[in-house]
Specification:
By secondary structure, the chain is an all-alpha fold. The chain is built from ten helices and no strands. It has two domains: 30 residues; 166 residues, Cytochrome Bc1 Complex, Chain D, domain 2.
């Protein structure tokens, strides 16, 4: 047996092949079952799709690189659940494209930040982070309050998300998939922008309003 081990360990080709085989088998055993479990492929019951304004805010969140400094993944550790709330579950993220779990916490986790602070607090924080959190090293995002938000692509984004999530949406009583957005939702995508009041005091909504709307939507499914 020792000689066989030595032959593999001393022969780079055999050792490489054996390593790849072990990793592949282990990966199949660990990962494959996840594709067939309801908990990892179906949305939690209380999950709702983003509104048109929240979806635009999500795109701003991605564009500004917020996910480089903030995670959206609460691990099942006491220190994290006491600070942030219920640990994250896969069923909350099945509609996310791309996923925004993050891998670094320069700032706090935002998975359940929705409703924790007021819109005014978020506005003040984004305008001047150190005015509300003195030790913050986050940059100011003042220009978002000066940039009008466009909803020209909102309807197209809703259609896209319907296609991306058609196998992972809620089901009706017959087991048929319910689209995230109905034809009426898509047709009326722009109404939210016309009826929502801007926190900046401007006549029309800004990118700041969209980003705050997105942040306030985070964590609504579980608390």
């Amino acid at each position: 047996m020792q000689n066989k081990h030595e032959k593999v360990e001393k022969h780079i080709g055999w050792f490489f092949t054996a390593t790849i085989a072990a990793i592949s088998i282990g990966g199949l055993v660990e990962i494959t079952p996840l594709f067939f479990q309801k908990e990892t492929t179906q949305p939690v019951e209380s999950l709702r799709p983003y509104t048109a304004l929240e979806m635009e805010g999500r795109d701003i969140y991605i564009r500004e690189g917020c996910n480089n400094c903030h995670s959206q993944m609460i691990r099942p550790f006491r220190a994290e659940t006491e600070r942030y709330g219920h640990y994250s579950v896969a069923g909350e993220s099945v509609w996310e494209h791309p996923f925004l779990w993050g891998s670094k916490r320069t700032g706090p986790d935002l998975a359940r930040v929705g409703g924790r602070y007021s819109d005014d607090w978020h506005y003040a924080h984004l305008m001047d982070p150190r005015s509300v959190v003195p030790e913050s090293n986050m940059p100011s995002y003042k220009w978002l309050a000066e940039t009008p938000i466009s909803n020209k692509l909102s309807a197209d984004k809703m259609k896209l998300f319907n296609n991306l999530t058609k196998n992972r949406s809620h089901k009706d009583e017959n087991g048929n998939a319910i689209p995230l957005y109905s034809a009426e939702d898509i047709q009326n995508a722009g109404k939210e922008f016309a009826t929502t009041k801007s926190i900046t005091g401007k006549a029309s909504l800004t990118e700041m309003d969209a980003l705050i709307a997105y942040l306030q939507s985070l964590g609504h499914a579980l608390k």
